[in-house]
Amino acid sequence: MKRFIYILILICGTFLVPLHSHAQSERAEARHENMLLSAVEKFNANDADAAMSILEDIVAEDPDNDAAWYYLAQSAVLKGDLETAEQCYRMAADLDSGNFWYRYRLAMLYSITSRPELTIEMFEKLLEDFPKKSDLYFSMVELYAQQRDFEKALETLKEIENVFGTNESIAVYRFNFLRMLNRPEDAIKSLEDYNKEYSSPYVLSMLADYEMSMYNDSTALVYYDEALELAPDYSPALLGKAETLRLTRKYDEYFEVLDAYVTKSDSPAAGKSDYLMAVVQRTDPKFINSFLPRLDSVMNKAVAMHPKDSMMLQTAAVYYYSTDRKNLAGRHFKANVDAWPESFNANASYVEFLMYAEMWEELSEAGREAFKKFPNEPAFLEMASTGDYNLKEYDKVLDICFKVLETAPNDSSTTLRTWSTMGDIYYKLGDNKKAYKAYDKALKINPDYIYVLNNYAYYLSVEGKKLKKAYAMSKKTIEAEPDNATYLDTFGWILYLQGKPLEAKPFFKHAMLYGGKDSVVIMDHYAEVLYALKEYDLAMVYWNLAMQRNDGDIPDLEEKVKQRKESMKK
Q1: What is the mean pLDDT of residues 142-158?
Q2: Are 553 and 534 contacting, i.e. CB atoms less than 8 angstroms apart?
Q3: CA angle 10–11–12, rounded 5-degree value
Q4: How far is Cα 108 from Cα 123, in angstroms, rounded to an integer?
Q5: Integer Cα distance of 255 and 253 in angstroms
């Protein structure tokens, strides 16, 4: 295209003598007009290539056709060729400098290509030639604001007022620019002055919001009430007043106004859900617990007003989950999926909820259903397998693992977790050989994956095999997490099996400080170490604790302890 324009300019220079008769010229003009109409149709149908082909033919024959140059520029913009567009806009503007749109589009092109000086220069010239175009003034205001030249922006606002009079937009712009210039007193006075003559709910709410930000709650409430007198259902004023009442602990009035806000049919659901989510996540839990029935009422009304709004259903679900009502939370998470079955966020939130709520059967089903919808998201299968694992349906877990391995990259974190899970499952199924192969696959991806290192090391120690390898792996885990009771137990137990109870003891003592007393297995191991060191009294303390808490964790623990007692007497 660039070469075409260059050649065309050269061609234009040869047209020094008329070559056609008047009749021929009229016929050519009519033909060009029809071609232009056809090009515009192609342009409006977003067929930029076809439009440009026709337009190039027009300007080749009639280089003074400003309209053809203009639409050639528009078509180039549609194709993303901004350099060509600029050349063509220039040609159109040069041919007809009195055409506003030619010059305006050129100015906007300067703007989108980040040339503020040229943009401002063009707008200033346009204002000189078209002083009654109010949009130009506001464009200038925006340009000055982008350049952070707020003084020039304020001057332009004054010019707008001189030509067109004042309005709400000007008042708001002036308020914001004065604040940007760190002139808060002037900013608020400008709004107050406007409000005296041209009161509006919007400006009154802005005044109220400002006063609330300055902790002038009583003044804020006055402005909110004035706004609501003018427009009783004005959402920003209702919400602002409600929040001010909450902050000033006027809770009866707060819930009354909040009810009015959430039950407004023409108020956007997004604003309501954003506010209610903020209440759930950011307010003092004491407030929520103290007013649970009233908050329930508000939430129910909000959902009833917007029963299929995804964010509203999500907000309600989070609210009920945070107030320890899993059934209600699950109902709303599920309602969101039912309303938006193809929404990734709705499905992900529901599946994640089921996992944290330990609803294993539902998790198994929902995870699989979500994966059917989003086959490139193996995380859904992983979560489904968590449900299967806790249901002890290990074959199902393995089936999922194989499916995940088919979709996930070989060296991804997903693959790493999958091999780790397969190792755990194979060990539970008694196939230690396959378990260790799976762990080796995981460690090949990440040699420092401490979860696998610990399990691998512990299972080897249970078998009494490859204790040196187990020691090396376990040592990595306690170096990474020196206060992890599980990892300390594994390392200490390996030392014990290597005939080093004295070296093992400090690791078990440390484990006791960081959760070891919550594990029957760890206390049993510690007692065995103490027994080996002939610290019988302390050993019995931990065995007694272990027996009290043993719920099938260690079969025949009581019988073993009985035998140890007998041997102590000898």
Answers
A1: 86
A2: no
A3: 90
A4: 9
A5: 6
Q: Which of 227, 199, 200, 198 is nearest to 212 (CA)?
A: 227
Give me 457's structure tokens: 């090391």
Distance in angstroms (rounded) separating the CA atoms of residues 367 and 379: 9
With cut-offs at 50, 70 and 90, classify the pLDDT of residue 261.
Answer: very high
**CATH code assigned at 41:** 1.25.40.10
DSSP state of 552: S
- Angle (CA) 105 109 111, round 5°: 115
Read off φ and ψ for residue 17, nearest 5 degrees.
Answer: -125, 135
| Alpha-helix residue ranges (DSSP H) falling in 81-216 | 82-95, 100-112, 116-129, 134-146, 150-164, 168-180, 184-197, 201-213
Could you write out the three-class secondary structure of 39-85?
HHHHHHCCCHHHHHHHHHHHHHHCCCCHHHHHHHHHHHHHHCCHHHH
* 3-class secondary-structure state, position 521: helix
Q: Cβ distance 438 to 465 under 8 Å?
A: no
Helices marked H in 283-325 = 285-290, 292-305, 310-322
Establish if 206 belongs to a structural domain. no
Does residue 33 lie in a domain region?
yes
Q: Which residue has the tokens 């549609």?
A: 78
Region for 149 from its dihedrals, namely left if φ exceeds 0, alpha if ψ lies in -120 to 50, beta otherwise: beta
Compute the distance between CA of residue 454 and CA of residue 471 in angstroms, rounded to an integer: 10
**Mean pLDDT value of segment 542-549:** 93
Which residue range is the domain that position 23 belongs to? 1-130
Number of domains in the chain: 1
User: Residue 39 is which amino acid?
Assistant: A
Contacts of 187 (CB under 8 A, 6+ apart): 174, 175, 176, 178, 179
Classify residue 495: in a domain, yes or no: no
| pLDDT for 3 beyond 50 | no
| The residue type at 246 | R
CA 139 to CA 159: how far, in whole Å? 13
For residue 570, what pLDDT is reported? 67
Burial of residue 202 (number of CB atoms within 10 Å: 0-12, 13-18, 19+): middle
Q: From CA 210, how far away is CA 218, in angstroms rounded?
A: 12
Q: What is the pLDDT of residue 25?
A: 66
With respect to residue 397, please indicate whether it lies within any of the assigned structural domains: no
Buried b (16+ CB within 10 A) or exposed e, 385-397: bbbbbbeebbebb
Average pLDDT over residues 253-267: 92
* Distance, CA of 156 to CA of 152 (rounded, Å): 6
